[in-house]
Amino acid sequence: MLKLRAVPLSVLLTIMCAATALAAPPPKLVLAIVVDQFRYDYLTRFRSDYHAGFDRLLTKGAVFTNARYEHYPTVTAVGHSTFLSGATPSMSGIVGNEWYDRETGKVVASVSDDSVKLLGAGGEGASPRRMLVDTVGDELKMARSGSKVIGISLKDRSAILPAGHMADGAYWFDPRAGSFVSSTFYFAELPAWVAAYNASRPADRFRGAHWLDRTLPSDTSVYAALEGSPYGNELVESFAERAIQAEKLGQRNVTDLLAVSFSANDYVGHAAGPDSPEVKEVSIQTDRAFGKLFGFLDGAVGMSNVLVILTADHGVAPVPEVNAARRMPGGRMPSGVVRKAVEAALIDKYGAGQWILSPSDVAFYFNRELIRQKKLDAAEVERTAADAARQVAHVFRAYTAEMLLHGTVDLEVGRRVMNGFYAPRSPDLYVLLEPYWLYGSKGTTHSTTFSYDAHVPVIFMGPGIKAGRFNQQISVNDVAPTLATYLDLETPAGSVGRCLSEILF
Ligand SMILES: [Zn+2]
Questions:
Q1: What domains sit in the chain, N to C, each tagged with a CATH number?
Q2: By CB atoms within 10 Å of each CB, which of 7, 91, 138, 356 scores lowest?
Q3: pLDDT of 370 strictly over 60
């Protein structure tokens, strides 16, 4: 025992994880699920209405009740890049859904890539090239010959980022074409089974479909509209079934990985908010979609051979008016207020000029050329701007690049903003609002480090996993190293999490 105590705890945990992983037979399929915008409390608040997929996960899985994201901003691209890489944005370089690119002077998206073409529709392609780190899928591809890795979602970033660089394909929905598309990053043309699936016009069956008191359009505008309805998830589920069938996922005596992200919940949630009947309904329909997928896998692969992992990419804030009515704090911040205060302070102190290059109210990129011309100290300019921002009502924190680079920040919020900071892409100043305050004149949104945005489900279910309720605080960054250990793979390069050895036999 004395000798054992001399071994660092992290080493011990790794050894324990490795030993248990070797004992368990490898699963035929890893099904890695993300629900886009799904707060942890959607599992508990709607529990009695779940009788299918969520019910199965909650009764047969290892359920983490206190999993959260440890980065800012809690948005789609960042959550999805964290999920199977274990990396924070400071490691992955995926610092937002989009960011201002100083080199080109343009806002770029997390997966935008003008060197590749879209397949299945016109327009610019997309790829994982901006992600600096790898995923468990990449480790699987490097270690095992024959393993396939595929990503599927309505959104490009949600299909691409969890799948990784070596994926056999990532597919997302194009609402203009009404079909699933990909890019030349993966192959020269869409696989025949994808073309055949699209030719059957699978989205057309939702023309005029009803949910709650709503009716989807009966013309081609149904393609965009179905994304914001439970039918968006139904469509993704049906495409996932087709992928499993066509690619023989989990049916070839190797371990395959299928990452599926369900985005309809996010579109519904932004418009209606977490307390709405719409969010309850789309959650219940998501439970049914998962039930259908698990039922299909029972037949195709056998669920006893499938490891399922479920999480969400972020939560969401209550609608400010709903909060106001129940005497809770918060409100709507008019756009431009912080920006004008910052701009005025910089002009007042350093003279006229276009000081702010980026369009955001939250992430400020300053004009470094102007700072050089005027022979100013960039850090001092940042401090002037931050001080001005802090004077604005309902500004909670202001972090300069200098503070984030040197770690001179508070532990509660600043540490998480540091985790989200990658200097070549991140802004010179981040300005965060008080809890429950948000920009935008209607609906609601997410991005903060507060629990309503950061607390999400993490559930593992399958062979070698101990079922039960696990109340310890974990981070979503722990998923990737746990999965890598479970599969006996190298840990993805940027992983900062720990192996959740408590759930492994
Ligand atoms: Zn999202």
A1: 28-319+447-475 (3.40.720.10), 331-439 (3.30.1360.150)
A2: 7
A3: yes
10 band by pLDDT with thresholds 50, 70 and 90: low
Instruction: Give the residue from 317, 282, 320 showing the smallest Cα distance to 455.
Output: 317
Cα(370) to ligand 1 centroid in Å equals 36
Kindly report the average pLDDT of the chain as a whole number.
95
pTM over 0.70: yes
Tell me if residue 444 is catalytic.
Answer: no
CA distance 139 to 137: 5
- Residue 25 is predicted with a pLDDT of 77
Spatial CB neighbours of 213, under 8 Å, sequence gap ≥ 6: none
- As a whole number, mean pLDDT of residues 57-63 equals 98
| Catalytic pick among 20, 76, 255, 448 | 76
Q: Answer whether the bond into residue 162 is a cis peptide, omega within 30°.
A: no
**Amino acid occupying residue 435:** P
Cα(7) to ligand 1 centroid in Å equals 40
Q: How far is the CA of 39 from the centre of ligand 1 (A)?
A: 11
CA nearest neighbour of 447 among 431, 458, 428: 431
Q: How far is Cα 444 from Cα 77, in angstroms, rounded to an integer?
A: 18
